[in-house]
Amino acid sequence: CKWDNLLKLASIDVGLKRIGVAICLASNIVTPQVAILRKNRNQAANDVNAFLKEWEIEKLIVGFPSSSEDTQNRIKHFIGLLELKIPFEFQEENMSSIEAEEMMKGEIKYKRDGRVDSLAAKIILERFLAKKPSL
After folding, report:
1. Reported pTM
2. Digit-coded pLDDT (tens) for 23-71
3. What is the chain's Cα-based Rg?
4. CA nearest 14: which of 69, 74, 88, 96?
5. Cα–Cα distance between 65 and 19 in angstroms, integer?
6. Do 8 and 50 form a contact (C-beta atoms < 8 A)?
């Protein structure tokens, strides 16, 4: 996070069952966090709000697939449920989950524990950082 005066960043990868989360608090080190399990929209939105507050996040990066309008609408709706008092930005996420699964090859039961989701969020945030000019 070497730009924007070292803003504390977080990214989310919004899925139907889990929301992957990752943070970047200093330099360019992006760390996946424990994924948020989604029982319903409101609970998931509350959990994301709590996560952002806990880490004092100053900007949220949201994974956004250019390929699926349904998913885009679902993500926009979900963002609308968040009590965001910080700026947010969409970041192209195509293939981030597949890339994350490739990184997890050989891990047992990685599918359901949310690690892939948070790795996808990490990839999304790294892509966002990569396209920003360094100061």
Report:
1. 0.86
2. 998 778 999 999 999 999 999 999 999 999 999 999 999 999 988 899 9
3. 14
4. 74
5. 15
6. no
How many other CB atoms are there within 10 angstroms of residue 106's CB atom? Answer: 6
- 67's enclosing H/E stretch is none
Q: What is the widest separation between alpha-carbon atoms in the chain?
A: 41
Of the two residues 3 and 50, the one the predictor is more confident about is 50
Give 82's DSSP letter. S
As to burial, measured by CB atoms within 10 angstroms (0-12 exposed, 13-18 middle, 19+ buried), residue 128 is buried
Provide the b/e sequence for 58-79 (b: ≥16 CB within 10 Å): bbbbbbbbeeeeebeeebeebb
Reported as a single tens digit per residue, the pLDDT across 19-30 is: 999 999 877 899
Q: Where are the alpha helices (DSSP H) in 17-106?
A: 41-54, 69-81, 96-103
What one-letter code names the amino acid at 31? T
